[in-house]
Design a protein that fits this description.
This protein has 303 residues and is α+β, with helices and mostly antiparallel strands. It is built from seven helices and 18 strands. Bound molecules: zinc ion (2 copies). One zinc ion (ZN) binds next to strand 11.
């Protein structure tokens, strides 16, 4: 499934080195896993009727990234879980604007997420926000820019007074969960990124680690990649070399992030840019239809 999605993304972006193509591996995190899972080669997982899958994918042109996610569930018992994050993300995108405070926007999102309940197999769960995850600004070749959009009202000094600014590119993503509202890291790893402090002229062990790092640098720059993509281009037996690059901090892993075993999580995510007199939404079908791609908003209303 992921290979089919990625072949299509490659085709429609006319993939060419770091010029254009995918922005990160296609996430298809299942159930209690909220983010950063994509199959490694040999993964035999089969999607089931009762699974809740977060499909998270992105493209880039000249390093300018869009990041988008939605949740797929076949069993209607999860409807409210999906609705919670869909509504929270939609409202987050609607209320975003120049001078909006990130801590307050998080409050709006958090209130919507926690207003839902879902009944799964006879048990009623109060839905929570996953507080460890957040929306984010994006910079050129950089999926996570400097600012975060929390999923709860954050009055901490770092967030409460930080405002959205003209020219910024945002991905608002919200996560609903029937679990604890916190995530932990899991194995196996599948998402990696070149470390910002990995310099090309630093000495890397000759042989496969060196060739692998050169390939990563040329094809992904500081954007995320997965072992599948390295294997698709002919590298084999890369486990040891990848471990070496991580141990020496040339490359950083981004492990799958999961809430407690047995719970379910949902996610929706959309990207937009804050232009001087409007916000342009790049990924939101419903709003594109509703608002004709561009939502006009009053600057004074946001003060
Ligand atoms: Zn995403
Ligand atoms: Zn994102």
């Amino acid at each position: 499934m992921v290979q089919k999605i990625e072949n299509m993304l490659r085709f429609i972006t006319n993939k060419n080195l770091t010029e254009c193509g995918q922005a990160f591996p296609t996430g298809c995190s299942l159930n209690n896993v909220a983010a950063h899972y994509t199959p490694n080669s040999g993964d035999e997982t089969v999607l089931q009727y009762d699974d809740v899958m977060k499909l998270d994918f992105g493209t880039q042109m000249n390093g300018y990234i869009i990041d988008c996610a939605f949740t797929v569930a076949f069993n209607p018992i999860y409807d409210n879980l999906l609705k919670a994050s869909k509504e929270a993300t939609t409202e987050g995108v609607k209320q975003a604007g120049i001078d909006v405070r990130l801590g307050e926007l998080g409050g709006v999102i958090g209130e919507i997420l926690s207003s839902y309940e879902v009944e799964i197999k006879g048990k009623t769960h109060k839905i929570k926000a996953i507080k460890d995850l957040c929306g984010h600004t994006m910079e050129r070749f950089k999926i996570h820019g400097g600012k975060s959009v929390p999923l709860y009202r954050d009055d901490s000094s770092e967030t409460s007074n930080v405002k959205m600014e003209e020219g910024e590119l945002y991905a608002i993503e919200t996560f609903a969960t029937t679990g604890s509202g916190h995530v932990h890291e899991k194995h196996p790893w599948s998402h990696y990124m070149k470390s910002p402090d990995a310099f090309n002229n630093v000495k890397i062990k000759a042989g496969q680690p060196k060739a692998l790092f050169k390939y990563i640098d040329e094809h992904f720059s500081t954007m995320a990649f997965c072992p599948r993509w390295l294997e698709e281009s002919g590298f084999t037996g890369i486990e040891k070399s990848l471990k070496y690059l991580c141990d020496k901090n040339f490359v950083e892993p981004y492990p799958p992030l999961a809430d407690i075993e047995g719970c379910y999580t949902s996610q929706f995510e959309h990207s937009f840019m804050l232009k001087p007199t409007c916000k342009e939404i790049f990924t939101m079908d419903e709003l594109i239809k509703e608002f004709d791609a561009v939502i006009e908003y009053s600057l004074s209303a946001n003060k």
